[in-house]
Amino acid sequence: MSYVVYVNDPNNKAIVHSINCSRYINRKRDRTSNGYWSKLFKSTEEALNYANETKKAKVDTCSFCI
Fold this sequence. Notes:
Strand 1 and strand 2 form a beta hairpin. The longest helix has 10 residues. The protein is of the alpha+beta class. It is 21% helix and 29% strand. The protein has one domain.
């Protein structure tokens, strides 16, 4: 399975999602007015590392898909 990170700038969050997550599947584009979706990662560890590198105050995994 692959993973992505949604980086939400106004809320200072970076959240890891599975590519099977409805929030990722139903996205309208990769960049939104609030942030952006990252590239694909092969593991949650890689995705969490990327999320931590964003220096957002809250780094977590999606409570719906992971």
